[in-house]
Each structure stands twice: as C-alpha cells, then as structure tokens.
Amino acid sequence: MLSHGMKQTGGISLNHLQGVIFAILNPWVAIGILLLLAFFATYMTALSWADLTYVLPATSFGYVLLALVAKFLLHEQVSPMRWLGIALITGGVGFIAGGPSLTEHPHSSTEIPAGSSPRESGEGVLRAKNAGVETPTSVER
Amino acid sequence: MKQIYTWSAILAIVFASVVGDVLLARAMKQVGDVGDLRRRAGLGVVILRTLGNGNFLLGVVAMAAAFFSLLFALSWGDVSLVAPAAASLTFIGNAVAAKIFLHERVDQRRWIAVVLVAAGVALLAG
Q1: How many other CB atoms are there within 10 angstroms of residue B109's CB atom?
Q2: Shortest CB distance from B123 goes to which of A54, A82, A129?
Q3: Closest chain B residue to A106, measured at CA
Q4: Stretch (H or E) spanning B31
Q5: B77 with B6: CB under 8 angstroms?
Q6: What is the mean pLDDT of each run of 10 residues along chain B (126 residues)?
Q7: How many domains does chain A have?
Q8: Is A36 a member of any domain?
Q9: Which domain holds residue A5?
Q10: Most buried in the list A43, A57, A104, A123, measured by CB within 10 Å?
Q11: Residue A24, domain member (yes or no)
Q12: Is A2 part of any domain?
C-alpha cells in the first residue's frame, strides 16, 4: 500500500523534476518521502517480529495492490500476463501466510544475548508471548 | 557488450539488496520486538537503538548501493528487463541468504512461496 503510494508520487514527481530542481519542496515529493519513511519504519517493525523470508514475500503484495489500483482508479489496461503475475504473487503470499509463520528461535537465541544484558528480562517476556502464539507450530514439530 | 554491463549491474543490485536485507533483518532481530520495547521504554528508545545498531547502518549503506546500481543498470538497459530481473532475483537470493546467514528455517512451503512470488513479480514488473 505504501509502496504503491511511493510509486505513484514518484512517477508524478519525476514529471515535475524535469522542469524544476525545487521539486524537493513539491508536496508530492514531500508526501513521497514521508510515505517511504513510513514504509521503512513499518518494514523494520515487521522484521523485528518475523523472519525475512516471511516478511519479504508478504511485502510483494504491494505489487498486487499497485496493479489493482492502476486498474480500478487509474483505469489502466491490465494484460493477461499481469493477471497471471497477480495470481502467482497472491498464491505465494497465501502459501507463507498459512505456513508456520513467525520467528524461529533455536538459532537466533544464540545471537540475541550478544546484546546488552538489561534486555534479558524483556526477552523472557517476548519468548513467553511467542510461545503462546506459536502453539500450533510447536504441535506440528 | 552492453548486455554484459546491464547484467552485471543487475547482479550488483541483487547482491547489494540481499546484503542490505539480511543486515537489516539481523539488526531488527538484535533490537528485538519493537512493539514490546516501545511499550516498556518508549518510541525514542526504539528509534535510538535501531539507528545506533551497526548492522542497521551497514544495511542502509548496502541499500543505497543497491539504489545506485539500479541507476547504473537503467542507464545501460531497459526498465522492462532490469526491474523484473532484479526484483525476482532478489527474492530468490534473499531466501538463500536468509537460510545461510540468518539460519531461518526455509522449508518447502517457503521455497514454493518464494518461487511463486518471484515469478509473479517478474510477470508484473515486466
């Protein structure tokens, strides 16, 4: 969603940039930068909760939204190949979303204590919470 | 000749963004659960701890390198080749790198998802 906003504003701002270098003051560019920052912040937050191989394919759902917005709001033509692409991405995202989702700890737990010690108590809470969330996966294993 | 330039630039994009993603993911694993941390210490601590993380800074540098490689690639090749090739190869490279360097358990389900998404992105971006 945010990446779609970025791309849209990015496209618009490019047209403006051709004429003016003051484009940074252009509200579209400002909105674009803000959205990019927001995307980055939420992306980082998601990475702190789940695996990279979980988050990254999920973010690609933005491509699907982008195509749908192009079709229904901008009334662009969406070719059959693109519909196939949309179907593939949707299927892939569905695959991981249904999968054993979140972080897995056996390896990363060796990595985390390298940080500062005051986090230890918080880690315990985190782990307890995840253990609660992940009960289905632990059953699977 | 130009093709070699374009493809090496694409590989540079893929390499840099995979490195960046892995570093960022590692950084956020070190920072810990952001929601949890914010509730206990406040948003400022979250931002400071993230920005002060070495892996995070290196990751951002790698992302910037990926962006400049993209500019180079675009100066040599068509968008319709560069964008889908770089995007879908990045997905596959990330899955491999996450398995090797982050020790994530990339099971069959995730492999299938990665391949599906990579193919879909290649079709959409092309």
Answers
A1: 13
A2: A82
A3: B103
A4: helix B2-31
A5: yes
A6: 86 92 86 79 82 88 90 84 86 86 80 86 79
A7: 1
A8: yes
A9: 1-49
A10: A57
A11: yes
A12: yes
